[in-house]
Amino acid sequence: MVDVSFELRKFVSPEFIIGVDARKLAGRYAKNLGASHVFLVTGNNLIRAGWVRDVIESLDSEGIRHTLFADITPNPRDFEVMNGAKLYKEAGCDAVVALGGGSPLDCAKGIGIVASNDQHILEFEGVDNVIIPAPPLICIPTTAGSAADVSQFAIITDTARKVKIAIISKKIVPDISLIDPVPLTSLTAELTAHTGMDALVHSIEAYVSNASSPVTDIQALESIRLISAYLPLAYHNPDNIGYRYKTMLGSLLAGLAFSNASLGAVHAMAHSLGGLSDLPHGECNALLLESVIDFNFEVCPQRYETIAGAMNIDCQSHQESQIKQMLLHALQKLRVELGITERLGDLGVTRENLSDLAKSAMKDPCLATNPRKPTLSDLEKIYEKAL
Ligand SMILES: NC(=O)c1ccc[n+]([C@@H]2O[C@H](COP(=O)([O-])OP(=O)(O)OC[C@H]3O[C@@H](n4cnc5c(N)ncnc54)[C@H](O)[C@@H]3O)[C@@H](O)[C@H]2O)c1
Ligand SMILES: [Fe+2]
């Protein structure tokens, strides 16, 4: 039998440029992609912080027109994508540039596929349901979190069903990602914490995923090392570009890992929570992570021990049960240091919500790669532990 590590595997990633001021290359890369009129998808905080102005100046300097679209909320909604696609067509755009956290980036991915396929965004739910490629897409992430700029995922809220759907397709991998640590300096401490924990959960879930591979393992472990060491430093020193760069690098590596190894129960359950109660995605992940590890640990203790090692926890000569407690304790300490101390109950989730939350998490495609297969009642219990 062939060792599972030698099996043929395929990986997708966009072309990416990483470094200080990468955002200012938007015009040059849009020109390389043949753009003449860019649809610029972003959010109001990014306009206020001045990052959008930098991108517009860069487009102007190459003689590229733009139409601005910033009518987007966190946990982007289906109708926001549809409105954007309508405006894209009416304005006669031929490329998309997205600047923001995961929400504008995912919305931009959605706008692209709706515009090229003339379908409703919710029809693309699931794996490989995009037929016609989207127009050229350049992404500029402003959080060290979602890594939507390198992933083959887009997460959109189905407002009728109150769930977040996952669209997973090679056709929504951006063409270019311009990864710049500078925009991270306008993140509040709370956003730094939430988005950074999202990135850490990406790498942990990719590493224990049952679709992990030697390539994604290297990316995930280095990402865990970088984020656990530098996220607290960036949180306490928000203007330090060096620390911001390390968290951005950690987020990029996590993105490459999870885009190709997929995620797990934390994300399935966080999508369900975000759809029902519109809570910040990273915060949902942070509040569920320890309970999910408590559930998963027994099926892959070695993997979790390696994660603990990457977090600089000295596990040598400890038994499995002790290692589990040491890892959970270190994650709790990190979460508290980052000011994430509330519980799901404090955020308005009630016992009556648990059954619906568990039902919709059961249907999320991220659950398929969780190392331990949960039942509906397992998921309810995990939510309950975090309540
Ligand atoms: N596509 C994927 O692969 C993927 C992966 C993980 C999460 N997601 C999705 O991404 C979304 C979360 O994205 P996110 O956590 O990056 O945040 P976000 O885009 O939802 O933004 C959250 C808040 O941060 C603000 N913000 C973002 N960058 C800022 C900056 N540099 N300065 C000041 N304010 C800033 C935004 O204006 C917003 O108010 C969720 O919908 C989640 O489901 C997608
Ligand atoms: Fe995420």
Key terms for this structure?
11% strand, 387 residues, Dehydroquinate synthase-like, alpha domain, binds fe (ii) ion, 9 strands, 2 domains, binds nicotinamide-adenine-dinucleotide, single chain, ADH_Fe/GldA, 3-stranded mixed β-sheet, Rossmann fold, 6-stranded parallel β-sheet, ADH_Fe_C, alpha/beta, 50% helix
**What proportion of the residues form beta strands (DSSP E)?**
5-15%
Count up the helices.
14
Count of separate structural domains? 2
What profile does the largest beta sheet have?
6 strands, parallel
Helices and strands, in N-to-C order? EHEHHEHEHEEEEEHHHHHHHHH
Number of strands: 9
Cα gyration radius (Å): 20 Å
CATH superfamily of the largest domain: Dehydroquinate synthase-like - alpha domain
Distance between the termini: 45 Å
Ligand roster: nicotinamide-adenine-dinucleotide, fe (ii) ion
Mean pLDDT: 96
Helix content: 40-55%
What form results from the Cα inertia axes?
Answer: globular
Strands of the largest sheet, in order across it? 1-9-6-4-2-3
Task: Give the CATH architecture of the largest domain.
Answer: Up-down Bundle
Annotated CATH topology of the largest domain: Dehydroquinate synthase-like, alpha domain
CATH class of the largest domain: Mainly Alpha
By secondary-structure content and strand pairing, the structural class works out as alpha/beta
**Which residue ranges are poorly predicted, with pLDDT under 50 across at least 5 consecutive positions?**
none
